[in-house]
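Reopening this one. Same input as before:
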Amino acid sequence: MREIDVGEIIKAVEELCIKANKILPDDLCGCISCAEKSETDELPKKIMGTLLENLDAAKELNLPICQDTGMAVIFAKVGQDVRFVGGSFSSAVNAGVAKGYTEGYLRKSVVADPLRRVNTGDNTPAVLHIELVEGDKVELTVAPKGFGS
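Same output, byte for byte:
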């Protein structure tokens, strides 16, 4: 049985929230670049070019690639031979989201009650999907879900 302190989960989720909002994977950047090069119509070609310029600007200025940093959706594969110490896993995930969105200066747009529309101020609670798998490791994926998509 492997013990993992929830402090490690908080730190990992914090870093992943920031990275997921500020860095578009190279393969996706490549797809946009290819689309821009192969597009024959002027308007879509210009839009792809603008997207590439925005990606460069976000990287240079250390800003989110989109102003809508969305709701944090966390996919966790948790090994059946893992035991969390120092607190609960779900609380650690939400603490990591709160820290990531605050420390990363990401837009916090989650509301606690959809009818009252009061912002939680830290983008929690996250949507957390947990899959129990064999082994003694934890794999985390953060996928911000923009509210306009």
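So the earlier flakiness isn't reproducible anymore. For the record, The beta strands are 2-5, 71-79, 82-85, 127-133, 138-145.
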